[in-house]
Each structure stands twice: as structure tokens, then as C-alpha cells.
Amino acid sequence: METFKAYNEASGNAIKIVTLAPEVEGAEELIAYLSKNGIVASIGHTGAKCEDIKKAITAGASNVTHTYNAQTALHHREIGTVGSAMLFDELNCELIADTIHVSVPAMQLLVKNKPCDKLSLITDAMRAKGIPDGVSELGGQTVYVKNGEARLADGTLAGSVLRMNRAVQNMVEKVGVPFTQAIDYATINPARMLKIDGEAGSIKVGKRADFTVLNENYDVLCTVCGGEIIYKA
Asked: Using CA atoms, how far apart are residues 42 and 60, in angstroms rounded to an integer?
């Protein structure tokens, strides 16, 4: 907890969400501190079992970082983090909907098991997003980007190069989610999870006027931020 306080102070108290492994010593104390101070405690990069997840929820955890990836899988004798993410409605589930990190059937299973307001699309994108295939870098590691996949030299996934408009497209065209539901996954749900839905996440009088205009092929035509056009195709 002291380490977090030092980082948060250095950031000007800008940290809004923290991913942590709830089975690690001191995690419950940190989760409770984060929750009390309006910061999202997110379960991820973890070997947690169901009992660990229950304790984390009781302490105030409310989110699961990139569900399925870097966490204990569902097993019939121990449902792990993945099974717990589906079981407990208190948890919002993030999803990298690129069909690479998570298969289409796995995405469909998550959609089927989560309330509509408890699933959020993320990109988990690294710096190579939006640029041509080739060699990139992530935290000092060489990353090779090819055909929409970003991998280390040994083949390990190094992150994604997914764009949010394509995540929405995948949810509609491959997972079979209604368009408006997919949009909620990308907009109001993450805003609600971060507790900023009073100012962002939907188009409404008094909100920030942040939105993107797509065409029928899900290409971005323009992006508006704070009521100003910041990108136009």
C-alpha cells in the first residue's frame, strides 16, 4: 500500500485503476484502500482461486483485467479467476476482442454469462498499434508485429495492436452481439466502471462531447473530444 501511495503522489493522484493479484500478501489491504479512495481495484496477472476472488470482492475489487488472459483458467474442481469472473456479477469483465487473445467461442461464453452492463471492451494495445507490420518495442523487449499479432521472439503474445472500432466490429460480426450492445461495451460500461459516467461514456447534455463517427464498415470518419473535432478521415 505504501508503494502505491508513493506512485499515486508522484502522478499527482491521477491513478484511476490498479491491476493486482489478490492472492499476494497485502493485497486485501490495498484493495480496501483503493476502494475507499474511489480507485478501481482490478483482478489480473494472477494465480487466484475462487476463494481469493471472493475475499477480493468483499474487500472492494470490482473489475477483472483482460479476462481469460494472464489468469487462472476455469476447471471443474476449481473455477479459478476466469470462472469467478463469470460467476460473480459484482465484477466487470474487460475483454480484448481481437479473436487472437480470446477465441470467438470464449467471447460468446463471456457475453452469455455477464450482465450487459458488466462487460467492457479494451484494446490492451501497445505502441505498434495503427502502424505497418514490422519490429517494435515494449518495455525494452523486441516485439514482432505481423497480421495483427504482436509477439516476442519466442512467440509469446506481447500485447495487442487492436483498434477499438475493430473490437466493436468483431463483437457484432463474429460474436453476434447487437450493435448498440457492442457500443455500450466500448463506451458507457467502461465509463461506469471508472466512475466517470456522469461526464463521459454517452452523448448527453452536460457531458464532455467525446464521440467517434463510424461508417457502415466501422471505419473512423471523425473523432470529437470535448466538442472539438480532433481527427477527420
From this structure: 9
Residue 12 CB contacts under 8 Å (≥ 6 apart), including other chains: none
In this structure, the number of other CB atoms found within 10 A of the CB of residue 213 comes to 14
Cell 476472488 -> residue: 53
* Conformation bin of residue 159: beta by default, left when phi > 0, alpha when psi is -120 to 50: left
Here the contacts of 38-41 (C-beta below 8 Å, separation 24 or greater) are 38/195, 39/8, 39/15, 40/16, 40/193, 40/194, 40/195
Helix or strand (DSSP H, E) at 144: strand 141-146
Q: Any idea how long the chain is?
A: 233
pLDDT under 70: residue ranges of the chain: none
* Distance from C-alpha of 226 to C-alpha of 32, rounded to nearest angstrom: 33
pLDDT in tens, 13-28: 999 999 999 999 999 9
User: What is d(CA 87, CA 76) in angstroms, rounded to the nearest whole number?
Assistant: 13
* Third-level CATH fold of 2-124+163-205: TIM Barrel (3.20.20)
Domain boundaries of the chain, sorted by first residue:
2-124+163-205, 125-161
- The three state secondary structure string of 69-137 is CCECCCCCCCCHHHHHHHHCCCCEEEEECCCCCCCHHHHHHHHHHCCCCCEEEECCECCCCCCCCEEEE
Given strand 134-138, what is the order of strands in its sheet?
Answer: 134-138, 141-146, 149-151, 157-160
d(CA 73, CA 166): 26
Q: What is the model's pTM? A: 0.95
**Active-site positions?**
124
Dist. CA 166–CA 164, nearest whole Å = 5
